[in-house]
């Protein structure tokens, strides 16, 4: 028995099985096989040879608004009569997770439209994270060749339009100083720049993104995270401080390219764990889905409102949790952190969460607000415009709902969401009619616009020279091969999309006994989205060459979170 355990722990048996049963028989080029053999990790090899095809198949058969149907919305409730409002509560499985000292969450064990989270799914998830079956075997092998990386991914179906989503950005190489700076002013990094509460008095400019993660332990092959990035008033990077080596590096100096890579990796890792996984999936989407299911009958106007925005969310959030949160999950495997450090990241992400704070009520430092007023920081300007469109839609919906908008079920839903924010930076205020409007508007904003900017990650993961989740000590100039592969798989999971927000949802609104006014309110919302979409596109067409911000075009939004 001891011999078997020893053999499994060194991964030799698993490697032999994967080589014989999977890699040797894989329909891929010899170059790809040789590249995979370099990392000597059966888990990564098995995953990349078996999962991209399923993502590709899902891309070919996307969910549409026609899949959202009134008659299929009944989770947590049972019919008591033929009337539209005849319901009573029913049992629904709930799965409790303790992630870190301050962060626990409950996810429903069933999805309204996609069935139960089965014992088999749970067992498969546990098996995939079992170190005896699939040990955590780190590698620092490098590709150092973008052309080879592109051929390698393409051969494995990890290319745009197949297992990977197609980017809508252009000339976003992230290598030049200009493209690197664009990441923070016109890309995902904008969410980090808004954390700067005071204008910097540094000689290197008024803007900075501060990410002091240097005290978090990493596994032995990988260097520590942590960087502070300085930008001037022209939105150009001027210096980067490496927290671990306590060194400030400026453009043109030795180590400048490595410093930019460190900043890219630190920011991408932080935003994936915090803004994307914890704030959007496990807090905003999960809380809204859980509380609306448990507290609101399927015919209740607020659940009717949220059904589109929580479509498929339980299934997606369960997958996101299993894939990205536990020890030896894909995120842990692709990042350089020890698992206790990962838990610290999740813990801090939870306690710093302000995802339910109304977007238009947020305060920014004067220089950043000035950029937004000048149209040079569209994350704030376009985000605020979209939020107000959503808030108008929510108000119109609740006005039509009448007394039901503030009945016992509605207040129970609000209180459930409020209780879920205890321990976070932003705690929902005491119930009020305006508080309900802001809560629902913030949920919708988070699962559509916010998720779009932090979830459209293909640009960051398509090449090892772009970005990723870790840097090796031996060569911190780009992402190592093993992490590049696993990060590519995480990116591929985002290719499975939800229905477009700008859709009719004609099988849902006003159907099955629902009031006709739903159709009119939704149509009015759609008209405003069309106007905003054109405005965003026109603004983008008028930007200087090399600068674009397409994330907040409502035409790109999905109605609910995908992974």
Oligomer: single chain
Number of strands: 10
User: Order of strands side by side in the largest beta sheet?
Assistant: 7-8-9-10
Mean pLDDT: 93
Stretches with pLDDT under 50, minimum 5 residues: 1-10
Describe the main β-sheet briefly: 4 strands, antiparallel
- Count helical runs: 21
Helical content class: 40-55%
Shape: globular
Class inferred from helices and paired strands = alpha+beta
CA-based gyration radius: 24 Å
Intertermini distance: 40 Å
Strand content: 5-15%
Question: What features would you describe in this structure?
Answer:
The protein has 563 residues and is of the alpha+beta class. It has 21 helices and ten strands. The strands form four sheets. A four-stranded antiparallel β-sheet has the order 7-8-9-10, covered by helices on one side. It has a two-stranded antiparallel ribbon with strand order 1-2. Strand 3 and strand 4 (103-108) form a beta hairpin. Helix 2 (12-23) packs parallel to helix 4 (42-50). The longest helix has 40 residues, at 256-295. The relative contact order is 0.14.
